[in-house]
Specification:
Elements: E1 2-6, E2 16-24, E3 30-37, E4 41-45, E5 52-57
Antiparallel strand pairs: 1-4, 2-3, 2-5
C-alpha cells in the first residue's frame, strides 16, 4: 500500500504520527504501521495482509479530529 498524507492548516514545525490500519474480511482492523508527517505532506509505503479491503487512517481518532 502506498500513498501520500497531507497535513493542512498546521504549523510547519508540527510532526504527526498517523496510524494506518487494514480491514481484512469481517475481522477487527489490523495496525499496518505509523506514518510520520513532518511538513505539508509525507509519502508512505507499507505492506498489507492478503485480502485487505480497505485502509483506515486513524480510525480511533487518536490524532485527527474534526473542528466544528
Amino acid at each position: 500500500v502506498s500513498g501520500t498524507l497531507l497535513q493542512k492548516e498546521a504549523p510547519e514545525s508540527l510532526v504527526t504520527s498517523v496510524p494506518l490500519y487494514a480491514v481484512v474480511g469481517g475481522k477487527a482492523p489490523v495496525l499496518l504501521g505509523r506514518v510520520f508527517v513532518d511538513g505539508p505532506e509525507a509519502n508512505f509505503r507499507l505492506t498489507a495482509p492478503v485480502g485487505t479491503r480497505k485502509i483506515l487512517l486513524d480510525p480511533y481518532q487518536t490524532v485527527m479530529a474534526r473542528r466544528h
